[in-house]
Write a structure and sequence with these properties.
The protein has 342 residues and is an alpha+beta fold. It is 33% helix and 18% strand. The protein has ten helices and eleven strands. A six-stranded antiparallel β-sheet has the order 2-3-10-5-8-11, covered by helices on one side. A hairpin with a 2-residue loop joins strand 2 and strand 3. It is globular.
């Protein structure tokens, strides 16, 4: 459905007919992505002239007819959309019409050159318009956006911002003939920088953590931070942060005063269902089984890791309403040292 925020709508592709509209949209710092699918064979018109760079990626489908133009220049006919993409610079006027022949699946991505979240050497103002282009690497990145949009739970700011940064770099390399325009960093993070990032992450595991936030902590651009961080830790920032969430959860699971839902929320997950899925993928067992194997008792509220369990953050009340005054109100706030304290 369309986002109600008027500014956001103005920055998106405008489709005049209401039977075609994005079904999914996610916004991160400097990058937004939309999934557009349609099985309706009626024609529709569209236009874009927003402040962001606009990218269209056709994933599947075919059109009976479609004509596109940028800034009134020579029109391009566009019928076979699969694995083809358009690049429209910020401020350019992109418009046309489409008459679908088969169901279509498309990804639309908006990169905001004003956000400061991209590589410092990436100047999106030098991007030239291209219609119906093809490139396997760029299309593969677009499919990662598709996976992010259709994931059961949001993949988080850190993942989206990193993906947008990578797409901007790949786009510029493609336009420049795949020349490597960015020098690799000379080294990873210093010990001080790494310790500062670690401390920040440990103090904010219960909330959302963004790539720009982490980069600003150590005085680097988001792109240079990603490169330096991976060189230091061996993994991208979003994967490392997820690992820290899981390690905190493992420590909290040894304390049976906390339900699975308590621990999920305290480590930044949306709920017990998402937490159980991610935990199982990382550890190889469910949170309840891990708790039992670690010497704790699963308890009633933790019996089904995939269900929505009773929220027991209110003075440690259990599912039967038995409240223990000695139980902390939230995990990680009792000064237990290395098991999740701040």
């Amino acid at each position: 459905m369309r986002d109600p925020d008027e500014k956001r709508v103005r920055s998106a592709l405008q489709i005049r007919q209401d039977f075609v509209a994005p079904s999914l949209r996610t916004d991160w710092a400097g990058v937004s992505a939309e999934m557009l699918t349609t099985s309706d064979t009626r024609g529709y018109d569209f236009q874009f002239d927003g402040p962001s760079l606009y990218l269209f990626f056709g994933l599947s489908g075919r059109r009976q007819d479609s004509v596109l133009t940028v800034d009134g220049e020579k029109a391009t006919r566009f019928v076979d959309i699969a694995n083809r993409f358009h690049v429209v610079p910020a401020g350019a006027c992109f418009e046309g019409f489409s008459v679908p022949a088969t169901p279509q699946r498309m990804i639309q991505i908006y990169l905001d050159p004003r956000s400061g979240a991209l590589h410092p050497d990436v100047d999106l103002t030098e991007i030239a318009p291209r219609l119906a282009a093809a490139d396997a690497a760029l299309t593969a990145t677009a499919r990662k956006f598709e996976a992010a949009l259709t994931a059961p739970e949001p993949l988080g700011r850190l993942y989206g911002e990193t993906l947008g940064c990578a797409l901007a770099i790949e786009l510029l390399r493609w336009q420049r003939g795949n020349r490597d325009f960015a020098r690799p960093p000379r080294g990873g993070l210093t010990a001080h920088q790494h310790n500062r990032v670690t401390a920040f992450v440990q103090d904010h595991l219960s909330g959302s953590i963004g790539l720009t936030q982490l980069a600003e902590l150590v005085g680097l651009s988001p792109w240079h931070f990603c490169r330096a961080f991976k060189q230091t830790t061996g993994v991208p920032p979003h994967r490392w942060v997820n690992g820290q969430r899981i390690e905190r959860a493992k420590a909290l699971l040894t304390d049976t005063r906390f339900s699975i839902t308590d621990i999920a929320l305290a480590t930044g997950f949306a709920g017990s269902t998402q937490f159980a899925r991610v935990f199982r993928a990382a550890v190889g067992s469910s949170p309840s089984r891990y708790r039992h194997q670690s010497g704790g008792s699963p308890g009633t509220a933790d019996a089904d890791d995939g269900a929505i369990s009773v929220d027991r953050r209110n003075n440690g009340c259990d599912a039967a309403g038995d409240c223990r005054d000695t139980a902390p109100s939230q995990p990680g706030t009792t000064g237990r040292g290395n098991d999740g304290s701040r």
